[in-house]
Amino acid sequence: MTKHAVIVNFPVKKTNKFLEFIDGDGFDKVLGKVTKGLFSTILFLGIPYFVYVVVQAFFMG
């Protein structure tokens, strides 16, 4: 009988950088910046437009 050596290659754990980003602090920082940007957009564009629409509705009757 001959003995054969079996070489087993265990898979190397590949890390998914996207999942690491979502799970880490980077996602929180990006989400905070997006939230601040959306708030600024609403504040500086939405409110003046709302005032414009209300004034137009007041004068148009």
The total domain count is: 1
The biggest beta sheet reads: none
The number of helices is 2
Strand percentage lies at under 5%
Q: Provide the succession of SSEs.
A: HH
Please tell me the overall pLDDT. 87
Rg over C-alpha atoms, rounded to the nearest angstrom:
29 Å
Shape: rod-shaped
Helix content: over 70%
Can you put this structure into words, describing what you see?
This protein is mainly alpha-helical. It has one domain. It has helices at residues 17-23, 25-60. The longest helix has 36 residues, at 25-60. The termini are far apart. The mean pLDDT is 87.
Provide a short characterization of the protein structure.
The protein has two helices and no strands. The protein is mostly helical and 61 residues long.
